[in-house]
Amino acid sequence: MKAGVVAVQGAFPEHVRSLERALANNGHKGSVITVRRLEELEQVCCLIIPGGESTAISKLLSRHGLHDQIVRRAVEGMPIMGTCAGCVLLAKEGDDEVHKTGTELLGLVDMAVDRNAFGRQRESFEAPIDVKGFDSPFPGVFIRAPVISRTWGRCKVMAAHSGKIVMVRQDNLIGLSFHPELSEDTRIHEMLLGLL
Ligand code: GLN
Question: Which one is the CATH code of 2-194: 3.10.50.40, 3.40.50.880, 3.50.50.60, 3.40.50.1360?
Fold first, then answer.
């Protein structure tokens, strides 16, 4: 099996490493590939959309023909995790900045996002995050992070920080506003593999 990391822009090399470690920890046989082209997307059985610049990532996904195919695979049930900018793209509703910049959301998860909600206060910070189902806090690294401002429908809150939602799950989809690939802890990457 192959796990994929979208690699059009942003923090993808760290996700490749974390996924490789998570695969080994879970005893999965498989490899991790970067995804820039449709042929690569077709090979993977789960996908990470990394942090970076959500406007840039959205434009590149459309240009490479990946946008519609990611939506199709998500609807078919492929596990997908979006972190930070990737979490913004999973949302059904964006904020003013998303609209002003013409960022085309994938529109998959029943949530609204506020793009730089944490970033305006503090550019970046670390905080221990209590994630539903984990027996100890996860080291959360937040970099100009979005906040999940509202959820509805099938979307379930997995973690909050300072009263703000920072992680959700909706069936085969996981969205989080922090960067799990920047810590040594692979539990969130293992959670994605657990959805296979
Ligand atoms: N604020 C960025 C955006 O919305 C995301 C930052 C990040 O991914 N680290 O594009």
Answer: 3.40.50.880
